[in-house]
Write a structure and sequence with these properties.
The structure is a homotetramer of 350-residue chains.
Chain A lengths: L1 H9 L6 E6 L3 H13 L3 E7 L3 H11 L3 E2 L3 H6 L5 E4 L3 H13 L3 E4 L7 H14 L3 E3 L7 H11 L6 E9 L6 H6 L3 H17 L3 E9 L4 H5 L5 E8 L4 E7 L7 E8 L2 E5 L7 E5 L3 E3 L6 H4 L1 H16 L8 H20 L3 E2 H4 L1
Parallel strand pairs in A: 1-2, 1-4, 2-3, 4-5, 5-6, 7-10
Antiparallel strand pairs in A: 7-11, 8-9, 8-15, 9-10, 11-12, 13-14
Amino acid sequence: MKTLRHEEEDVVKPEKLHVGIIGAGRIGRVHAESLAFRLPESRIVAITDVSPAAAEQVAARCGIPRVAASSAEILADPAIQAVLICSSTDTHATLITQAAQADKHIFCEKPIAFCLHQIDAALAAVKQAGVKLQIGFNRRFDANFMRVRHAIQTGEIGAPSLMHIISRDPAPPPLDYIRVSGGIFTDMTIHDFDMARFLIGDEVEEIYTAAGVMVDPEIGKLGDLDTALTVLRFRNGVIGTIDNSRRAAYGYDQRVEVLGSKGKIATENCYPNQAVVSTAQSVYSDLPLNFFMERYQASFTSELASFVAAVLEDKDTAVTGQDGRAPVVMALAARKSFEERRPVRLAEVG
Amino acid sequence: MKTLRHEEEDVVKPEKLHVGIIGAGRIGRVHAESLAFRLPESRIVAITDVSPAAAEQVAARCGIPRVAASSAEILADPAIQAVLICSSTDTHATLITQAAQADKHIFCEKPIAFCLHQIDAALAAVKQAGVKLQIGFNRRFDANFMRVRHAIQTGEIGAPSLMHIISRDPAPPPLDYIRVSGGIFTDMTIHDFDMARFLIGDEVEEIYTAAGVMVDPEIGKLGDLDTALTVLRFRNGVIGTIDNSRRAAYGYDQRVEVLGSKGKIATENCYPNQAVVSTAQSVYSDLPLNFFMERYQASFTSELASFVAAVLEDKDTAVTGQDGRAPVVMALAARKSFEERRPVRLAEVG
Amino acid sequence: MKTLRHEEEDVVKPEKLHVGIIGAGRIGRVHAESLAFRLPESRIVAITDVSPAAAEQVAARCGIPRVAASSAEILADPAIQAVLICSSTDTHATLITQAAQADKHIFCEKPIAFCLHQIDAALAAVKQAGVKLQIGFNRRFDANFMRVRHAIQTGEIGAPSLMHIISRDPAPPPLDYIRVSGGIFTDMTIHDFDMARFLIGDEVEEIYTAAGVMVDPEIGKLGDLDTALTVLRFRNGVIGTIDNSRRAAYGYDQRVEVLGSKGKIATENCYPNQAVVSTAQSVYSDLPLNFFMERYQASFTSELASFVAAVLEDKDTAVTGQDGRAPVVMALAARKSFEERRPVRLAEVG
Amino acid sequence: MKTLRHEEEDVVKPEKLHVGIIGAGRIGRVHAESLAFRLPESRIVAITDVSPAAAEQVAARCGIPRVAASSAEILADPAIQAVLICSSTDTHATLITQAAQADKHIFCEKPIAFCLHQIDAALAAVKQAGVKLQIGFNRRFDANFMRVRHAIQTGEIGAPSLMHIISRDPAPPPLDYIRVSGGIFTDMTIHDFDMARFLIGDEVEEIYTAAGVMVDPEIGKLGDLDTALTVLRFRNGVIGTIDNSRRAAYGYDQRVEVLGSKGKIATENCYPNQAVVSTAQSVYSDLPLNFFMERYQASFTSELASFVAAVLEDKDTAVTGQDGRAPVVMALAARKSFEERRPVRLAEVG
């Protein structure tokens, strides 16, 4: 990307970042809206999708001037400086490689791939091209979790020793999705694996997982799990747990807690309002924000703002390719631990 | 506004609402951004300000195609269907009248005026023109307060009997602002007078105010107050209080509580995150969202969405001209009560 | 009481305080249990009641060796150093006077009397005898309210400006009680009048009351009120409110909040446990501690511990005779304000 | 204990339970005070301790008529129906056996012993004698944890799937105590093992423990741990965790959370008051109740009330001998899991 950097040296104020979007599904639309309506530093040049109608719809909504016929057309466009890869997971690694070879900066949804070989090939291509890569772990940009990381980084709670992540979905996804998702660890826990590394700022060495099918036997028939408790042992000694359930009857539940030598920090779940009603029956409040689109609305925008700024100001991205690889290794270890009923060192799988 | 309604009859989907903005100060910019970035059903045609540079800046930021030389130019533009009046308070009533005569729908910041004659003249012009008018009491669109009103309207807490509004600013405004603001009741409590009517859904008959200068003696020297406790007696018997202070050291504080025959509903203040830190000294969390721009960000957008929808779908606006007049009457009664140290009936002043 | 003080000079460790109890109703039994089971520094010598059976029952429960035939017998017993006056309100002032004349230290339930002349006569007798007198405003010993007072006294929240007391009963008392209670201000608000003085540490100058019958029309027919909002203006400028309702459907509700120049302190209501349940319907917790016996259990013991210590160690009591008189004056002013629909200065009634 | 039961058949109202106390250390004194001051259904006949001075002191404080020279003297006293074993852990099993043989009902502090053979011998003696035995797992009587168990037993949150116990001490005990305590699992986690069984109402099959020395290296030098995360797998499929740290800088921390098919229930920690202070720096409250004496004050009394009632009314005790054995098995499994870095089935050790 010498071109862009040269341009930056020439102009005082960088141009808007020209972006192409590959994939116009749910997450592609969310990102398109963020860029179009909330990030004036960017400009969407084109969008494409395997369903042209989906791409047309997002283009109309967000004022995107062109619907491209294919990702190849996007990557071939010299006016496009960066691409957002929002297509299905099985295409991520290949598209990263192709985009890097086309000298585009890359924002890619998680996970990069289920297979470490594919990930490593993609990351090698990125490295060789010298382009920027950011992985879509949006929860890092949530105000609550940033506050926790801040407390750890600044020593506000001293040296961390125990960490807990609660991460529960309101309801299981459709069985058709379960069938292709790669399993609970790759599909759901992967966000929490990233969160664990993000909060503690260190690598995990060993994982032990106890899990089961407690929500829906149909999930078990497909070979997946719906309830999992994962114990992480970090290089620096910190012991962490991740509590996952595919069903919390009360709604989406996303909390963390860290104990340190000087104290603890814990975050409550997020609610649509702060009203509390007291009646003759009970003291109650409304259910939490139901799912990730409501809960992480702001962080979806923030992660793109961070990516746009990283490219325009030539800084490191906030979530690197290695940050995309590590949670996949952890997911493999968690699955192996569950299957072999023993703690598994990441070195065994990664 | 027959024109627009005729157009609506002809087309299945209404056109975007074409808007002109009068006033490019802080609130004008907030509204421009909401329309430009978050309300695709609207289109800003032009903006004007007594400072052309301010108008230019907002136009550039929000992609507004034209900076008009004056409000007259805005009102004369046949392509503009609705105007946002965001200029200084002393111009509101006149601009409402002129806009109504120009057959524009009107969104006007509060208060309409300090003087009831001016308000009544403006409302008469609106009525005669048959245009829509919405007053900028944005707090009605806050998720917390909407939840409280919902509890009262649906009977969730039974018949209301006691109501409390806490409304404290983080710090007094500059003395220059105090000098022209019309006083604490017109400037600050007016929002709470509106909230009281909104929540209880009834009119206030009598007001008693105890107030003083406890924050800054300079405010007292200018003839204003900085701390006020106002007791409201509603027509339906409900007794309410409004607690106002121009300084809450911990930041902006906006809460309400209502007791009813079946229970109570109370809202907590709003905070930037849900993190709680426990150390050897105390259990603490971060300060609340500091001021109205942070706290009411979403409600500023919602009130405009409501206005745009009211015009496009030809519905009543959510905050009427009468809703703009009533709090001014209450402010006059509160001031009179303070001065005469006695409860004052609204009939005496309104 | 020179006798006791002489004894104290002679011995290193004071003897147990020998107590007689006049009145074996609900509050008499509570105090008897505190002395018998939780305050080893005291010894109950005798108890009496207009119903001998009631006195017998408490004596059996608490191991009290003697049931006296009358208060006169208690007051005549030279072995008794202090008396607890727990009989009906109309007997308080007379019994205080008699006890003082009998050289007994006195703990008396609130209110001393409804009539200032009777109060003043009783206090004069106490002063002349030089005995100690403590009034049963037990809420002063509640951990929450002590914490608030501490924040004000130490300057933790700076100079106070606004104060709110919420004090709601779960349900109205029987109409037979209403008939003789002296009215809501003397019966219920009196505790809050004391709390206001206790928290702010200053005297009230003026009171304005808005009140009504919103709970039960039968209460109104008896000439009483069931809902009252009282505004207090303290000598030091602080403005306070007291919110009273004879019915909070969710249970007993006792909270305070004070705003000061450096911040605020607010107390939540008290609950039987800290459990929160989240289901598909709502996030809820159990109702608050239902009434004063549960809520103020600890403070009932603490006030007696304080009284026992004040006598044994010859210190001032925590709640003086003047502290018993002032709230009665405030109750008279509140009633007058309600009747005359205007603010009333305490100097007018006290 | 036929004697007592025969007596009960003869009299309508049972006599007071006559109790002897063995051990006058901290916990012996707490129990003596509960019996003496708060449980009128009991009568302490005698107390003994290896330090006669300690026994004298408690006897004086609690009005116990006799200080016995030895536990043998207590057990030989025909007037004593029940004994409280509050002596050091290494004496528990032997004293249980002796007390059973002496036909006394038994309340014994936890743990019964570190060795399963000793436990089994003691329980066999109890069984043979037909006396009642209750183990001192007082936390079962805490209002919070009883509420959680209630939610599970009644189906309020549906079938449980995940459970978390947080149990952290404010500071490590003295190293001299660590030296003889039997290690963190027997000394500290044992309460949580009991809590886990109590809440879920089922037995644990397998345990995995990750632990370390993160608080004080001196603890590690003594062969003990100070930080431990234990994963429990229950027979019914529930997965649980126990978070233990010997140091929470902010004070004692005792919480649980259970997720079920219909929702979750979670308990907050316990605080000395409900006051929240908001200043220009932060929003804060006082530290939690510092340690178990404050936190579990009420439950210490409740467990004895339960024991006294079980004996007087000839009911099963609330915490049986088997309830005393199971947590010791779990502690052995946890230690073994830590040492062998693998999940350990309870069948391997118990």
